[in-house]
What we know:
Blueprint: E1 6-8, E2 11-15, E3 21-25, E4 31-35, E5 57-59, E6 62-66, E7 71-76, E8 82-87, E9 102-104, E10 107-110, E11 122-127, E12 133-138, H1 151-157, H2 165-168, E13 170-171, E14 178-181, E15 186-190, E16 194-195, H3 199-202, E17 214-219, E18 224-230, E19 245-252, E20 255-262, E21 268-273, E22 279-284, E23 291-294, E24 301-303, E25 314-316, E26 330-332, E27 337-344, E28 347-349, H4 377-386, E29 388-395, E30 400-406, E31 415-417, E32 422-426, E33 431-436, E34 442-447, E35 457-461, E36 464-471, H5 476-480, E37 495-499, H6 528-541, H7 543-546, H8 564-568, H9 570-574, H10 593-613
Antiparallel strand pairs: 1-2, 2-3, 3-4, 5-6, 6-7, 7-8, 9-10, 10-11, 11-12, 13-16, 14-15, 15-17, 17-18, 19-20, 20-21, 21-22, 23-24, 25-28, 26-27, 27-29, 29-30, 31-32, 32-33, 33-34, 35-36, 36-37
Bound molecules: calcium ion.
Amino acid sequence: METTPLVSDGVIYSTSSWSMVYANDALTGKLLWMYDPKVPRQWAVHACCDVVNRGVALQDGKLFVGTLDGRLVSLDAATGKVRWDVQTTDKTRPYTITGAPRIAKDKVIIGNGGAEYGVRGYVSAYNIDSGEMAWRFYTVPGNPDEPFEHAAMEVAAKTWGGGPWWEIGGGGTVWDSMAYDEKLNLFYIGVGNGAPWNREIRSPDGGDNLYVSSIVALNPDDGSYVWHYQTTPGDSWDYTATQHMILADMEIDGAERQVIMQAPKNGFFYVIDRKTGKFISAQPYATVTWATHIDPDTGRPVEAKGARYEDEAIPAFPAPYGAHNWHPMSYSPAAGLVYIPAQDIPHVYAQDENFTYKPGFWNTGTDSIPALLPTEPVAREAVKDMVKGFITAWDPVAQKERWRVTHEGPWNGGMLSTAGNLLIQGNAEGQLVAYSADKGEQLWQFDAQTGIVAPPMTFRLKGEQYIAVAAGWGGTFALTAGEDDNSGPRPNYSRLLVFKIGGEAKLSPVPDRPAKLVFTPGEQTASAEQIDEGLRLFHTFCYVCHGAEAIAGGTPPDLRAISPETRAKWDPIVRGGMHWEKGMVGFSEVLSKEDADNILAYVTEQAILALNKD
Ligand code: CA
């Protein structure tokens, strides 16, 4: 659950997995209507980061939602009836939509995701009433032999070289954050990483690769380019600039500035002039090793030696999970603080020496094996100990942390701060916690019985203030992290929770989950070479959903714990696509029978390891 609920006229609107939309009475929770866009479940294979959705946009009784399979749907807010439904992506490419649309005047704007699988990023604007496309802004250049779609692409193309990036798509997907400044009539988009991650493969002649990992300001009337600021020039680390952008006015060095604030994945907190795009300041808000600092004169990062892992693998902070991911940060003008749900996660970046483009599949151009935890126990624990999650209360003017709340681990919920000096966050441990916004003192907590990643929101109705949050565990870290997620799989119970002072409802009890895993691997019959090949294939095709080292995060099945019956159906499932209706499509295009057997040998080996540990 990654949705931010919206409240209007006593109705609370939210979304869930598979892009479903719910309208509930905001006072009672009574379901008024629900809309299922019927996303084909096999589309999940194109989603890097779970089948999530971050919410709806709403204007004048018209509701808008993006769907995982690339549609933008408009609903009547009163009834949930479809007003229009348009395909915003090329269905022959692995595009997905998980972000919420945004509205600027009479247009609704939507981006997309899928850079890791090979797509070209863009945002599209549609007329709110007719659903007709008004404009499209591409974020990265296409095939240079074809005409540029708009002037900004001609500029961007000069910063790419030695392709053919356009075959893989180039990336630059706008998969989450966008913001509109009505007064300036500027529409800001946060642009994602390049595809593949590794610039050495994407653009071997180097270059900044505009507009990957950038904030771009557009004129929302026609989608024309106004300015850009690139947080990670020539990105090679999956350091997206798709993170939440906060527009605020504040006094800096004696002058009133209109700023945009962002804490992108790369670990630096940026304050940018939102009128001009001019760099104001940046400092690291978490552990950062890929760059030493941001040059105050140029606004460009000064990269650490070897950071681009061209000659050898390099351990670095942040990981592709980011020092901060999509989980919204918040700003309290009263406290003068930005609250960032931050994390320290190390990662070993390494070239994929044998990279070949696999259309529709995982294409990062990096080798995921060196990034696994060491097998040697002392080293393994040492790396796991580096993995941390925390709230940093950040002073954006002084560019300094004022205080910090430490969590048990990373991947905690988005933030809400209120004028009543409250700071509220759900966390990975399943607690919804209120702190004082000025000092970070814990005031209250509630056991939500499930991990929380979504941000709380607040609304007032009939003179009372309410806090709403979508509880439920999931997302990319939950799926992929394996034992880095060191408290093990958490239960997922997707529920919308609403609170007020004196609220008396009790959460209904949930069954104990996850049930203890039972390992029945049987005998290992494969050779060491086969197991090794299985490890490589598993971490090419399987781990993004089923977890590093086949240790799953609690939503898709933990393959180490499959039953002998499932084991007997391995090939029909893995290559035949027997469970496509649950999102597990057949991989016969890319895996031979022998490949599938080798993956099973590796999974068996991991199950034996787990069994011996028990
Ligand atoms: Ca990415």
